[in-house]
Amino acid sequence: MTEHDRDVFYKTWSGCYDVLGMAQKKPSEYGMSICFESLKKYPLLDVQRALGAHLRESQFPPKPADIISRLEGSVEEQSTIAWQFVLRCAAKHGYTTSLRFPDPAIVYAIERMGGWQAICSITTDVLPFREQDFARHFAVAKRNDVGWDVVPPYCIGWGERTRRRDGYELQPGTIVDAKTGEFLEDYEALGSGTAEEKELSALTSGIVKRVG
Prior knowledge:
Elements: H1 6-19, H2 29-39, H3 44-57, H4 64-72, H5 75-93, E1 98-100, H6 104-112, H7 116-120, H8 127-143, H9 158-165, E2 175-177, E3 183-184, H10 195-199
Parallel strand pairs: 1-2
Antiparallel strand pairs: 2-3
Helix pairs in contact: 1-2, 1-3, 3-4, 5-8, 6-8
């Protein structure tokens, strides 16, 4: 959503209380502002649909967590989908490739498990146990709202790691977008490209700030 959607969002959110017969318990403008900021990354139409589904199934006022759960699924569901995505990337790209994943929670879990090369080296016999490890770290990242300020901007592959070790600079087109499979320029791999994120490009995949 954008700032242009704020008034419509307020009316929609407030309307839920009218439907539930709880008009006298509507949140304050400040409260609705908090809800808006919590859901701002989602399209307005998706939020409205999720609110409609909530009203069809619940007699209680909506909370941002209710809407996020409907839009993204539970943390457990997200973790399962993310793990399968990681395994597909490992099979397709291998441990030599540096990958930019779309969710910092994925990167957090990978780093906690030893980095991208460690993920690609997992054997079939321990796969279920590593999935449990991933799910645990992924859940920690989601609960603590881990962002790109906490994890490296991408997972460094063995190829880039050896070039760094030997003193070679990172070349454009080295990093792959895990979602699209396309090669990225260095600055494009750093999300919004803020100064802080660009500084993170010098980090190795073994460095992750402690959370919790």
